[in-house]
Structure formats: structure tokens, C-alpha cells
TrEMBL record:
Name assigned to this protein: Ice-binding protein C-terminal domain-containing protein
NCBIfam families: PEP_CTERM (TIGR02595)
Every Ice-binding protein C-terminal domain range: 150-173
Organism: Tunturiibacter lichenicola
InterPro entries linked: Ice-binding_C
Keywords: Signal
């Protein structure tokens, strides 16, 4: 009997101590004189409003965002997102920004902050074409998408488990008397 009780206590403790790891999702929308786009950013929290971007999807000037570039792959990008933005909430990216590829991979884009304005830079790195690089100031809006967890919190599971065990104990006592 004691072994069963100890086993149930260990199981309840294991359920209560698990933490849910999840990524946060942000939507973005930007406009500029030459380029505009929108999409979704998936990021994991580093703490205190700083997020590491793990995925990006969307459209920039009718071209799909194909993949997120690794850190330091283009314009010394660090792929960090700040939410709420720093400097009175105005900037969601630092000077290194986030970099990604468009379409089949020829065009690389960096969205960052420079000179107290949000910057958008696109460069054509396809060797079969002439290389070009365009930088412009953009207006960008980044918002966190609220999400609900489909899995109950560990504390809820522990409370539910103890309730079920209590009900089973009451039923057992009634059947034995």
C-alpha cells in the first residue's frame, strides 16, 4: 500500500513540476515608398521583452518569405524582436534587425532600426543578375497575437488528479462498508 501511495505522490509531483514550453507569435505589417509586406513571426522569449525569432512567414511585394536567415548571415542580423518595443515602444528591432529570403532565395531582406527610424533593406544576391541593394525607411507595426494553451496547466492537472483520487477513495469506502 505504501509503495502505491509513494508512486502516486511521485506521479503527482512530476505532473505538477512540468513547465510548458511554447513560442510566442507576432503579426507584422509594414509600408514604405518602394516596398510593403505583412506576415507572422514566431519567437521564443529570452526574458524581459526580448525574443529570439525562430520563424517568419508572409509576403513582401507579392513574393513569399521563403526562410529566416541565420544570425550574422546578412547585415550582421541578430534576429531579435523587442516587445513592447524599446525607446518608448517605437522600435521592435535593433540596428542589426531580422533577415530573411524572398521567393526562390535570390533576394535577401533585413528589417531593422537605424537613425531613430525603421529601415528596410533588400539586396539581390543572385549572381546571374546584376547585384543591387535598396534601403528605405518604413512604417512598421508589430503586435503580439494572444494565444490560449490547449493543454491544461500542471497545477490544474494536479488538482484534477487529487479530486479523482479522493472520489475513488470515497467510492472504495462505501463499497467496503
Amino acid at each position: 500500500m505504501k509503495l502505491r501511495t509513494v508512486g502516486l505522490c511521485i506521479l503527482a509531483l512530476a505532473v505538477a513540476c512540468t513547465s510548458a514550453a511554447h513560442a510566442d507569435t507576432f503579426s507584422f505589417n509594414f509600408t514604405g515608398s518602394a516596398f510593403n509586406g505583412s506576415g507572422t513571426i514566431t519567437a521564443s522569449a529570452n526574458g524581459s521583452g526580448v525574443y529570439t525569432i525562430t520563424n517568419i512567414s508572409g509576403i513582401v511585394d507579392n513574393q513569399a518569405i521563403s526562410n529566416l536567415l541565420s544570425v550574422n548571415a546578412f547585415d550582421n542580423n541578430d534576429n531579435l524582436l523587442y516587445s513592447p518595443g524599446f525607446l518608448f515602444g517605437a522600435y521592435n528591432f535593433d540596428t542589426q534587425g531580422v533577415s530573411f529570403q524572398l521567393g526562390s532565395g535570390g533576394d535577401r531582406v533585413n528589417i531593422g532600426q537605424g537613425g531613430f527610424l525603421n529601415l528596410f533593406e533588400v539586396a539581390d544576391l543572385d549572381p546571374s543578375k546584376s547585384n543591387w541593394d535598396i534601403t528605405e525607411y518604413i512604417n512598421i507595426d508589430v503586435e503580439k497575437i494572444a494565444s490560449t494553451s490547449p493543454v491544461p496547466e500542471p497545477g490544474t492537472l494536479a488538482l484534477l488528479g487529487t479530486g479523482i483520487l479522493g472520489a475513488a477513495g470515497v467510492m472504495r469506502r462505501r463499497l467496503t462498508t
